[in-house]
Amino acid sequence: MVDACDEWSPLREVVVGTAYGAVFPAEDRRMVEATMPAEHWDAFRPGHAFPPDVVLEADRELQGLAELLERMGCLVRRPRRVPWAGLAGYCAAMPRDALLVMGDRVIEAPMAWRSRRHELLAYWPLVQEWRRTGARWMPSGVDLDVNPVREGPVIEDSWVIGEARPAWDAADFLRLGPRTVVGQLSHVTNRSGVEHLRQRLGPDVAVHLLRPRDRHAMHIDATLCPLRERLALYNPERIDPGDLARTPLADWELVPAPWPDPAPGPPLYMTSAWLNMNLLVVDDRHVVVEAEDVKVQELLASLGFTPLPCPFRHVQALGGSFHCATLDVRRDRHRTGRLSG
Question: Are 186 and 206 in contact (CB under 8 A)?
Answer without folding.
Answer: no
